[in-house]
């Protein structure tokens, strides 16, 4: 936790079907992030965690995104994914800590107790302050605002949930990590001023197809305006 304090955590992830999908590519992306000043990497899947650990000297926060038929929870939803990440060498594991039903009737309490028994630091991904307060009461290491806007009962915002970050920093006694829709360096500065312990940036760094789209959309918009003025 001391190593990531007030720093940038680069989320290096690519899903099947995306251009950069593959552990070798994600390891290179992580290496580039390290060269750019990232203090840690957040990575999806045991394969990617293992490859990234071999490529960089930074701590790696691991997750496994896996769908289960009986639940909407997909970020490290069961002990099975925890075991995979520990075997791969993850330094911290992030889990969904929302109030939604988990696969197989597994509870958040069960997950946290299991992970604490293994002495692995726990990042609790939350979407509301109440979820953060509950996760903190269970003994997680830190909370992250990752899932704000991705549950049906949290606000759907264009940018980061600044209100949640501010309230969580004020109410909780554990570190609050700012994550979710952070697209600009100015937003990184803003969430740190609000008291965030560290900042996670994902798509704006590691999904070039989305980065390119932002510039391409700007070009198309400019052409439309120019044609309208002719």
Automatic annotation (TrEMBL):
InterPro entries reported in the protein's UniProt record: Aldolase_TIM, NanE, RibuloseP-bd_barrel
A molecular function (GO) term: N-acylglucosamine-6-phosphate 2-epimerase activity
Pfam families: NanE
Entry keywords, A to Z: Carbohydrate metabolism, Isomerase
Catalytic activity annotation: an N-acyl-D-glucosamine 6-phosphate = an N-acyl-D-mannosamine 6-phosphate
EC code: 5.1.3.9
Family named by the database record: Belongs to the NanE family.
Name of the protein in its database record: Putative N-acetylmannosamine-6-phosphate 2-epimerase
């Amino acid at each position: 936790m001391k190593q990531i304090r007030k720093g940038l955590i680069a989320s290096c992830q690519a899903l099947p079907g995306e251009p950069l999908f593959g552990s070798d590519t994600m390891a290179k992306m992580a290496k580039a992030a390290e060269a750019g000043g990232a203090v840690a990497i957040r990575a999806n899947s045991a394969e990617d965690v293992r490859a990234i650990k071999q490529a960089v000297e930074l701590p790696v926060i691991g997750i496994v995104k896996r769908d289960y038929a009986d639940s909407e929870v997909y970020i490290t939803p069961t002990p099975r994914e925890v075991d995979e990440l520990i075997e791969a060498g993850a330094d911290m594991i992030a889990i969904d800590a929302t109030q939604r039903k988990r696969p197989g009737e597994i509870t958040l309490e069960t997950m946290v107790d299991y992970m604490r028994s293994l002495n692995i630091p726990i990042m609790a991904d939350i979407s509301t302050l109440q979820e953060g307060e509950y996760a903190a009461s269970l003994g997680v290491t830190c909370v992250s605002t990752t899932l704000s806007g991705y549950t049906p009962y949290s606000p759907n915002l264009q940018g980061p949930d600044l209100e949640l970050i501010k309230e969580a920093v004020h109410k909780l006694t554990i570190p609050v990590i700012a994550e979710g829709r952070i697209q600009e360096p100015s937003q990184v500065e803003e969430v740190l001023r609000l008291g965030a312990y560290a900042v996670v940036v994902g798509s704006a760094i590691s999904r070039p197809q989305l980065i390119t789209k932002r510039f391409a959309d700007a070009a198309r918009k400019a052409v439309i305006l120019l044609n309208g003025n002719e």
